[in-house]
Amino acid sequence: MLQSSGSPVGALHAAVLEWYDANARQLPWREPGAGAWAVMVSEFMLQQTPVNRVLPAYLRWLERWPKPADLAAEPPGEAVRAWDRLGYPRRALRLHAAAQAIVERHGGDVPDDHQALLALPGVGTYTAAAIASFAFGQRHAVVDTNVRRVLARALTGVAQPSISPTAADQRLAVSALPADEATAARWAVASMELGALVCTARTPRCADCPIRAQCAWVLAGSPPYDGPPRHGQTYEGTDRQARGRLLAVLRSASAPVLKADLDACWPDAVQRERALDGLVADGLVEPLSRGRYRLPA
Fold first, then answer.
1. How many Å apart are CA 190 and CA 19, to the nearest integer?
2. Rounded to an integer, what distance in angstroms lies between the CA atom of residue 147 and that of residue 19?
3. All residues at 6 or more sequence positions from 200 whose CB lies less than 8 Å from its CB, including other chains
4. Do the beta carbons of residue 150 and residue 199 sit within 8 Å?
5. Which residue has the higher pLDDT, 23 or 230?
6. Which candidate among 3, 20, 117, 207 keeps its CA 20 to 30 Å from the CA of 80?
7. Nearest to 247 by CA among 115, 92, 119, 69
8. More confident site: 227 or 266
9. What is the per-residue pLDDT for 7?
10. Residues whose CB falls within 8 Å of the CB of residue 83, separated by 6 or more in sequence, listed in order
11. Number of H helices, E strands in the chain
12. Beta strands in 83-124 (DSSP E)
């Protein structure tokens, strides 16, 4: 692996870590006493949702459920209700299921074993690596979109990584890990922060980048992206928006909701029924007798 201080990757480590020490955002899940559960909650919430939207929901969540057992003791519908407008609410159900598994299998403590983390509901390769690294200081390749972009530019000289994560991305991230466990854990969060704040997708701030002198993409003249089109996700008028409207009605209700109240929240009947059927199939909504619906109990 490219680990020595004189190697191309080794030369990046010191610069990025020094930059991170001076520029890292102060976020509650990064506080020294935050704990593994706080890190785990943040990782579930931050999937496909920006930090500024996550922060209020995260703080409310940890105040209400400071430990996995606190969440596990509640109905899953309460997790969906508290998820509010973060989007992709199945994450709330998965986090609730993971909390129950932590209580049942690990005595209520988030496990520090990577394989045990992978075995939890809703925890995939990225999330297990992130929790193990950020909460327990272990050496894992934590590969999100930001890290993929930083490594693609710095080490391979391309403007953007592939649209979807690949095995090659994972291998590149592993090759870039410092050999020392504690340094690797800091590198994981520092490289991610660099991608979030400086090496951004659309308008990278190369003049402020601590590794611009070593970046293969900058040294190549910052060639433009020449891969397949990258289309942003639309929301207005989609089934996702219809699902969100239906869930908003159910979240605001303290009792089961009549079908007529759900019908009133979205004008397109065909799309509305499709969205409602999808919510039921996903376990986010429970149909009851006499045309009533509720969050899962």
1. 8
2. 15
3. none
4. yes
5. 23
6. 117
7. 92
8. 266
9. 58
10. 57, 89, 91, 92
11. 15, 3
12. none
pLDDT of residue 4: 42
Q: Where are the beta strands (DSSP E) in the chain?
A: 257-258, 286-288, 292-294
Residues 6 or more apart whose CB falls under 8 angstroms from that of 145 comprise 161, 195, 201
- Give percent helix, percent strand, percent coil of the chain, each to the nearest 5: 60, 5, 40
pLDDT at 229: 79
Cα dihedral 169, 172, 178, 179 in deg (nearest 10): 110
Copy the structure tokens of residue 51: 């930090």
Task: Give the pLDDT score at 231.
Answer: 73
Measured CA to CA, the distance from residue 162 to residue 139 in angstroms comes to 24
Q: Give the CA distances from residue 66 to residues 40, 70, 106, in Å, rounded to whole numbers and listed in that order.
A: 12, 7, 16
In the block, which residue shows the tokens 């994972």? 170
Which tens digits make up the pLDDT trace of 22-59? 999 999 999 989 999 999 999 999 998 999 999 999 99
Active site residues: 43
User: What is the pLDDT averaged over residues 108-132?
Assistant: 97
Predicted confidence at residue 6, as pLDDT, reads: 47
